[in-house]
Amino acid sequence: MSSAVRDWHALAAGCRPDGRLIIDGRRSDSAAGETFGCVSPIDGRTIAQVARGKTADIDAAVASARRAFDDGRWAHKPPAVRKKILVRFAEKILAAKDELALLETLDMGKPIGDSLSVDVPSSARCIAWYGEAIDKIYDEVAPTARSALALITREPMGVVGAIVPWNYPLLMTAWKLGPALAAGNSVVLKPSEKAPLTALRLAELAIEAGLPEGVFNVVPGYGHEAGEALALHMDVDAIGFTGSTRVGRKMLEYAGRSNLKRVYNELGGKSAFLVFDDYNDIARAARTAAGSVFFNQGESCNAPTRVMVHEAVADQFIEVLKAQAPKYQPADPLDPATAMGALVDDNQLRTVLGYIDVGRAEGARLLCGGHQARSESGGFYVEPTVFEGVNNHMRIAREEIFGPVISVLRFSTEAEAIAMANDSPYGLQASVWSHQFDRAHRVSRALRAGTVQVNQYDEDDITVPFGGYKQSGNGRDKSLHALDKYTELKTTWMRID
Ligand code: NAD
């Protein structure tokens, strides 16, 4: 049966996710036998009991990953063999598309249509892409004198700890796993306690595809327990972290307090969206802003939540933006026609509603939304919300809200627009809307952000790096550049007599 005509409610009713952790290729309970309830934000129902990993479980997972690395069962396989297994793994992800999409939607509340069309296929493509790439990358011979030979080689780091958030649980896992596994590392993954289910299923699919046991271990649990134990572990060589800037700071502290492991942080954002008056389709720009913020319930690190519009076209822009909002009214995440689903949990709901109160109190004008929705469902939904009359000093323009809330700011000159856009602790993504070639290029160069999009916002591909300037992080996920994070650079000198 095609995904489009499935009865997702019936499938959800029969879904019994396995919440046990995976170490050494086997499912098991946590060492202490403790669990936590996994609550679906769709209706507030507990859908699984999940192993509550702690230090003992992380120790066991790291020991398993270390054994697997040291005996070379994966790291020493020829790249062409690693490729075959990763490509098979990607095929298994696609074959389990409906099951993974359902788990993702039940676990974190995004619309099933998005899980099916974005999260699952993008994750499979990521794993396959790194697999396909790894037997096509050459090392270097340095241009030294003839009396010696200098080889410059990339080698796997060893044991990589991956700590990921809940907003794209499957995809963020894939962005860490693809390059780390392709390069020959062993991985211990700590998924978010708010959405651990797809990562656990992913590990089973990897093992079915032929990944040797111990190479990919998954320990769910809380950040201050399993997460901290992993980031402090003396036998973990690198941490690939995606999450908030607050916890990213801790990652650096943990490395300083332990073994100076490499830390690659992919953190929060407050991305700017600059619309100039020479752009000839203001309605298109406004539709794109709405779609980019309200997608994934506004829980996207790169959502363009600071929309800056030239004063000559601001009223027109705002009219279209307001007219777009009803299309994103939250609805049942299990209905394939739904455009916006549930926020991840009650805590996130309170945070978002709290920021909406802050915006009102700061003097911003609420144009639409601002309320909880579908409360009768037992789930956690917020209306698409637009503020205007925002200035760049307000908290709603400076802090990451991580919900469906857009702030519209006005500017009058190009210099003012650039200064406002850059006046942020974050620098993940930005966009420029202008038909003047010089301006588009000049402003793109001036923006302090890891990705800049011109006359669009959501162009994306695994072939390009993704990551931030400033407090949005330091590493880059995706593209061949991500392999740098999970490899050491070695020089080997050989004397030639
Ligand atoms: P978070 O920082 O609260 O948690 C992220 C992960 O860290 C979770 O697995 C959590 O359990 C763990 N953690 C929490 N406290 C910890 C601690 N003391 N020690 C070790 N681990 C700990 O973030 P979140 O709420 O899950 O995710 C949302 C954030 O992620 C947003 O800020 C968003 O912008 C960011 N994000 C960034 C990117 C990117 O690529 N830059 C992508 C997606 C999400």
What is the strand and helix layout of this fold?
Layout (H helix, E strand, L loop, with lengths): L7 H6 L7 E3 L2 E3 L6 E5 L6 E6 L3 H16 L8 H17 L1 H12 L3 H23 L5 E2 L6 E9 L2 E5 L5 H14 L3 E5 L6 H12 L7 E3 L4 H10 L5 E5 L2 H13 L4 E5 L5 E4 L6 H13 L11 E5 L3 H11 L21 H17 L2 E4 L3 E2 L7 E2 L2 E4 L6 H4 L6 E7 L2 H9 L3 E2 L1 E5 L3 H10 L4 E4 L14 E2 L16 E9 L2
Parallel strand pairs: 7-8, 7-10, 8-9, 10-11, 12-13, 12-20, 13-18, 17-18, 20-21
Antiparallel strand pairs: 1-2, 3-4, 5-6, 6-23, 14-17, 15-16, 19-22
Helix pairs in contact: 2-8, 3-5, 3-7, 4-5, 4-7, 5-6, 10-11
Nicotinamide-adenine-dinucleotide binds next to helix 8 and helix 9.
Description of the molecule:
There is one protein chain. By secondary structure, the chain is of the alpha/beta class. The chain contains 15 helices and 23 strands. The strands form 7 sheets. A 7-stranded mixed sheet has the order 14-17-18-13-12-20-21, sandwiched between helices. Strand 12, helix 10 and strand 13 form a beta-alpha-beta unit. It is globular and about 75 Å long. It starts with 7 loop residues before the first helix and ends with a strand. The structure holds nicotinamide-adenine-dinucleotide (NAD). Nicotinamide-adenine-dinucleotide (NAD) binds next to helix 8 and helix 9.
What are the key terms here?
497 residues, alpha/beta, 7-stranded mixed sheet, 5-stranded parallel sheet, 15 helices, globular, binds nicotinamide-adenine-dinucleotide
